[in-house]
Amino acid sequence: MSWFMTADPGRFLAAAGEFLRADPAANTVMLTVTENLRVSAAAPAAGQPLYGWLRPAAALAGDWAGDPAAAPAGDRTGDPAGDSVGAAFMHTPDFPLMLSRVSGADAACLARDLAGAGHRVGAVNASQEAAEAFAAAWRERTRVSVAVYRRMRLFRLGELLPPRPGPEGTARLAAESDQDLLAGWFGAFAREAGDPPGGDQRAAVAERLGYGGITVWQVGGVPVSVAGRTRVVAGMVRVGPVYTPPELRGHGYAGAATAAVSHAALDHGVREVVLYTDLANPTSNALYQRLGYRPVEDRVVLSFTPARHALRFTRERTRGLRPAGRW
């Protein structure tokens, strides 16, 4: 197998789009991020992602020509068409490298290729086997310390089961007049979730408002909780973020908002509604299952820290104690 890489989302989708769309739930992040780039035609605030796809070894035969930006991590350039893709990855600066389902051996090969090319990776998000193989190869080449940052579970909606009885209030699509409030809530969610700081939350809110991607739960006309969703890609949407300010938690608002955004997606013909939870947050995991979400797969985020600057992780951080939603 051979990894090919590019910074062009169009080239990535041309090569790996069919592979990703064959399992939109498992590949939800790569599909939605590239769709956002396709629609906006602008790099995310964190920087332009690097993409990659895996070709069978047979693809290495024959003449090679093409764009050096789409080169395998060896000494060849170009990517022959017509061969099936076996795996894919996406890496946005400051975020973990996201790996599709892939063998441990191919994940380790990717780590060695990226390290050899001088590419910086601060964390990897993958299945347990692939993440550990990538981390072992990365540590061997870069001498970093490795720690578990977060354990996550992907859920897919089966039959939607709205909370009965539901809390006081009603759902509505967020409006432009909500932008300041929502930007503050998105920022608070990112801080509590341990996501990279410094994102432009007003821009993120504005983008979602443009396609109806934020649902507000309100009581007496006052917003009390929010549930976002991605654009529809390959018949799939991903719910998130879900956030309720601390002083308003414990009333069921987040569950009602999640049910409302899930119901709206189904009403618009979406085939798959998915979301991620933090396995260290039993509240969110139990709530989503009560709403009808069923487990699909588990993933782990392993973080890399230069050994000379290694931090002392608390037990909670090492276990990945990060919120998937705030109630």
List the helices and strands and how they pair.
Blueprint: E1 2-6, H1 9-21, H2 28-40, E2 50-55, E3 87-91, E4 97-99, H3 104-116, E5 123-126, H4 128-142, E6 144-157, E7 170-173, H5 179-193, H6 201-210, E8 214-219, E9 222-229, E10 236-243, H7 253-267, E11 272-278, H8 282-290, E12 293-306, H9 315-318
Parallel strand pairs: 4-5, 10-11
Antiparallel strand pairs: 1-2, 2-3, 3-4, 5-12, 6-11, 6-12, 7-8, 8-9, 9-10
Helix pairs in contact: 1-2, 3-4, 5-6
Order of helices and strands: EHHEEEHEHEEHHEEEHEHEH
Binned strand content: 25-35%
Number of strands: 12
Name of the CATH superfamily of the largest domain: Gcn5-related N-acetyltransferase (GNAT)
CATH C-level of the largest domain: Alpha Beta
Distance between the termini: 45 Å
Instruction: Return the domain count.
Output: 2
Please give the CATH architecture of the largest domain.
3-Layer(aba) Sandwich
Structural class computed from helices and strand pairing: alpha+beta
Low-confidence stretches: 58-77, 309-327
Q: What value does the average pLDDT take?
A: 87
What is Rg? 20 Å
Separate helix tally: 9
User: Could you please say which CATH topology of the largest domain applies here?
Assistant: Aminopeptidase
Largest sheet: 12 strands, mixed
**Order of strands across the biggest sheet?**
1-2-3-4-5-12-6-11-10-9-8-7
Helix percent reads 25-40%
| Overall body shape | globular
